[in-house]
Amino acid sequence: MARQIQMRRGTSAQHNNFTGAPGEVTVDTDLNTLRVHDGVTPGGTILASRDEIATQIMPGSNYIELALGASGARYTAPASGYFTINKAAGTSGAYLTLLNLSSGIGITTDGYQTGAKYLWVPAAAGDTVTVSYSFSGATAYFRFVKAKSYMA
């Protein structure tokens, strides 16, 4: 007969008030992840999920072309990867901002030079990203680039 291993488990609140034994692994049922304990730190250390790890991996070669909407439009990441845009500034002083509203990670142009601007922002599956701009020039591309997956 196969053996079954069951670890201690609990909510995030329960974990935050729990100091596990050194090397103990427990299951956080709110976050659906594991925590590793050192016998000292309440709550232990939360291990990253697959999607969190994938957002730290380099962009892959598969991408989805997106239609750029009005400034301030929102987009949802279909998988873990990166939103990227290449847009030209028609006038000096124009700006282009790409912001992941879910993680708070974003980037904006300086707005003082005309020419093409390239921006990249990481996103986990389901994250909401907004693009704000005053650029009047052409958009060479706006796409979502899927992250390379090194996991089976």
Your description of this structure?
- β8 (96-100) and β9 (106-108) form a beta hairpin.
- The chain has helices spanning 12-16, 50-54, and strands spanning 9-10, 25-28, 33-36, 45-46, 59-65, 73-76, 81-89, 96-100, 106-108, 115-123, 128-133, 139-147.
- The longest helix has 5 residues, at 12-16.
- By secondary structure, the protein is mostly beta strands.
Q: Give a count of the beta strands, DSSP E runs of length 2 or more.
A: 12
Cα separation of the termini = 27 Å
- CATH fold-level assignment of the largest domain: Jelly Rolls
Total count of helical runs of at least 4 residues: 2
> For the largest beta sheet, what order do the strands appear in spatially?
1-2-3-4
| Percent helix | under 10%
Please name the CATH architecture of the largest domain: Sandwich
The succession of helices and strands, N to C, reads EHEEEHEEEEEEEE
What CATH first level of the largest domain would be assigned? Mainly Beta
| Structural class computed from helices and strand pairing | mainly beta
| Beta-strand percentage range | 35-45%
What is the domain total for the residues? 2
Question: What overall form do the CA principal axes indicate?
Answer: elongated
In the predicted model, the low-confidence regions spanning at least 5 consecutive residues are none
Residue-averaged pLDDT:
86
Alpha carbon gyration radius: 21 Å
